[in-house]
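Feature request, filed as a ticket because there's no other form

It would be nice if the structure record came with a short human-readable summary line next to the tokens. Right now we just get the raw output. Example of a typical job, pasted below so the devs can see what we mean:
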Amino acid sequence: MSLHTYNPLRLIIIPSRLSTVAWCEEHVYLSPRVPTSEPGQWRATTVAALCLSGGPLEALDESEVETVVVMKGSQTALTTTAYCWLAKELDHDPSSALIVMNSAQDAKEKSDETWRPIWEDSHRLQRFLPKDRRKNWTKLFQRINGVPVYWIGANSPGRLGSKPIRRLILDEVDKYPQQTKSEAGAAALARQRTKSFRKKGLAKILQFSTPTDDGGEINREYLNGDQRKLYVKCHACKAEQIMVWQNFRIDMAQAQTDAPKAVAGAHYECPHCKTPWTDDQRWAVIDAGVWKPTTTPRDPKCRSFWLPSWCSKFVTCNYLAAQWVKAQQGQSALQDFINAECGEPYVHFDNRIKDATFAELEGDYIEGQMFADQPAYAGQYPKERERWVIGGVDVQKGYLMAVFRLFVDGGDSGLMWAGDVGNFEKLDILAEQYDAKFIIIDQRYRTREVQEWCFEHAGYIPSMGVAHRARSLFTAQTVDLDEGRVSGKGRKIASIDFDPDMLKDILAVQIQRAEGSRRWLVPKGYAMNATYVQQMTAERCVNGRWINPQNRANHVWDCESLALLGAIRFGVWGNSNPGEEKK
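Raw output as currently delivered:
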């Protein structure tokens, strides 16, 4: 008799769960109907950078990973690869899925042009197609292996609620419509639908995009993860490195006279041994590369990746060089290159106010004081010079934020106080305390209440930012509070319509101490006032428009803008005859 005891359980073989790469190579066929330059059986070598050790597909297979973020360049085949991953998941462990595109039209096109052929032309996947195709397979909904797959455009936020989702793909998130103050962005709304599965540790979120600026959605999510980069070894000296654009070589002097020749001679150069790489050599080292984290993640369940276009086998050095030559045409072209080829966010250094700036703006006075009366400044601002305290108020649904700033004839100014005043009555107490001449109030919220208050209280003036670029900074208006009322008394008040972008441009010049700008001060300690500094640095100027990319509180920034508007409107800011408008 055998010394080994018979065990019937030894005959039971549990099939192992294939990795995404192995499953796709075995089961996915990309027919010529799919928009790809490499039709045929799916091969990892075609999209090698996505399949390497420590890479995006491996991260998606890890149970402890919840979110995978890829900040990418163009031509990386990531969208098609994402669909192949989701097909594998629906085969192995079917559960609800959602794909969010920039628009409903984009969702319909991708669903029909790429997603459907993958299922119809891959032998293993054909069996999961529903029998009733008319009911269970449309462009925006499919029932596959018994579970629903939804497609939604980010421009249809109403469809992003209700249904629980286990697997979520957010495609080109930086192209989604900007979130508003009243509603979260499409990406945030979609992620909320995975909440029930996230509590159980079952959710999987894949989000990727070509970046825009450093305040964009994909860059913020990338910074939450471990910021992995692809390390490759030089074929000549074996030195490990991350391929960056600075190491690509193109003769720009020659490009000015013979661009085709300069483009033809472009190549990558190892920064260690200076050996030039051909495209084939670059692609070969990518095949042997490895992804490594470069920082400790803010979110331990997030893996994030930087994937520039030159890590793709669909991109040649000649193509990159041609795009670089085009990028020299202007700032917009340069931004396109940085986003689409480098896979990096464009940082707008112009009109970008940094926290450290406020330490340089602190004056030699404390909160509540009129800076012009302090010893350090009194000699520069004699009493006969016109000086006004002007307030700026941002009205929210349940409270008021305000600033009071002293302006001296010519435009120099010093902040006296900034903060939450709660309600109009408390605002009026502060206005009296600081002897404010005028208070400019934003009437976007609680419009009627603001207008009635302004009518009853002298010196208060309602204002409204115009939605388009105005021909001038502001226009004076008259509001009839009784218009349309039969028994009305014809009560009228003055108001100001202004261009917020033009106004904020002027304010940014003041804060940044640009050459020729007027003195703009804050009290001692305000560089350490977190609320003030954070709100004053919430916005940035992008292509001439001031935006709030992270939707941070920015009420003090608005208040300071309105105080400046009052100074300009009533002549104390740069007017040779201040007070003329007061009459």
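Something like this underneath would help us a lot:
The domain at 355-569 is CATH 3.30.420 (Nucleotidyltransferase; domain 5).
Residues 166 and 200 are 10 Å apart (CA to CA).
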